[in-house]
Amino acid sequence: MGTNKIGAASEMSNLVGMYAFLVIEDKIKAIVFVAGKADNRYFICQAVSPLTGEPNVAKLMTLDQLKDWIILPNAADAQNVLDDYHKNGWRYSVSF
Predict the structure, then answer these.
(1) Is 94 inside a domain boundary?
(2) What distance in Å separates the CA atoms of residue 53 and residue 38, rounded to the nearest whole number?
(3) What digits encode the pLDDT tens for the residues 29-43?
(4) Whole domain around residue 49: which residue ranges?
(5) Considering the domain boundaries, does residue 7 fall inside one?
(6) Phi, psi (5° rounding) for residue 38?
(7) What is the pLDDT of residue 56?
(8) How far apart are CA 33 and CA 45, in angstroms?
(9) pLDDT tens, 66-93?
(10) Residue 83 CB: number of other CB atoms within 10 A?
(11) Domain-located, residue 2
């Protein structure tokens, strides 16, 4: 039985192109689109408005800062989450 090795955080580029949701107590606190890597440590994360889905400011974030976020692989999955969120009438609490 072999062991699978996980690369260092600086080598992980598979988050690029994915959406990340910070959910605390069943409320979406923030949504970001991981637009790219700035260097071996930082990801370029574009904040997304939970009300309109439009991009907002960008922020550099490390993998450690993203570890508690829910990562979704594409825009369609992110839109499904937002559609359910709106349908259920939950309130957004955005603090980014």
Answers:
(1) no
(2) 23
(3) 888 999 999 888 899
(4) 16-87
(5) no
(6) -80, -40
(7) 84
(8) 5
(9) 888 888 888 888 888 877 776 665 555 4
(10) 10
(11) no
Model confidence pLDDT, tens digit, residues 52-71: 777 888 999 998 898 888 88
Residue 70 has which token pair? 């829910």
3-class SS letters over the chain: CCCCCCCCHHHCCCCCCCEEEEEECCEEEEEEEEEEECCCCEEEEEEECCCCCCEEEEEEEEHHHHCCCEEECCHHHHHHHHHHHHHCCCCCCCCC
**Tokens 């107590």 map to which residue?**
25
User: 50: which 2 tokens?
Assistant: 């939970």
For residue 95, tell me if it sits in a domain: no
Q: What is the pTM of this model?
A: 0.72
Query: Could you tell me which residues are beta bridge partners of residue 33?
Result: 19, 46
Q: Evaluate whether 20 touches 66 at the Cβ level (below 8 Å).
A: yes
| Number of domains making up the chain | 1
Q: CA-to-CA distance for 24 and 95, rounded, in angstroms? A: 11
